[in-house]
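Lab notebook page, bench 4
Experiment: in silico fold of construct C2
Operator: M.H.
Input chain length: 239 residues
Purpose: comparison with the prior construct
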Amino acid sequence: MAVQRWDLVTDGVRHRVEADTGGWRKHLRWWVDDELVAERRTAEDKVRLEPDDESSGAGTVRLRFSGLGKPRRATFYAAGDDVDAALGTGGRDLVPEPGSPAAVHEAWMLEHPRRYEAQKVAGGVAAVVVPILLTLLVVRFAVHLPWPDWDLPSIPTPDLPSIPLPSIPLPSIPWPDWSLPSVPGWVAWLADKVTYVWPVVLAYVLARAEIKRRRKQAEQQTEQQTEQRRTADDETPQP
């Protein structure tokens, strides 16, 4: 049974999230100070966990998985951060269990940002190229498929009498000339290619933003751990 765990302590509150990815549906659970506040079973790759008790004010947790269902990250949003939670921006990342798939992926991404960007760009290219190739294959298959020759009987059309309609002279209305100016050739070319380019550009931008966000989260976690160690040292009685 594959279980991914994340932990986070913020504002004196301890959060723990578990994702059981052993089956075709993920079993997700969220504890706040050892109290189970949310539980969900789903096959989605982007999941939002909210407390069963809406009055608890525990906030929201968003989980991300890869297309193959591998755990990627869990992010906590405090109560009131509804806009960030809906957009998936901001928040505090929970710390994955050391050695877990999410921890390994995060470490690899921070150590190899260029390769991570290249993977995302390749995914954007695939999102454009694969549908085109599939369409070409379907068309090629349909053209070469021997379709049967259906000899359908002709249906006689009844000869209806013509009805003379009155001719009403209408006044001519002078319409203004709405002809639009022609655009430069490079603008037309760019407009024709933007459909294929934007998924690649979007994938690159999102990859850069994710790396920047992860680095910022790692720095915050390091500062928090340093502060916790400093507080523990101050509280330790001196001999």
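Observations: The helical segments are 82-87, 101-111, 113-144, 185-235. The chain has a mean pLDDT of 77.
Next step: discuss at group meeting.
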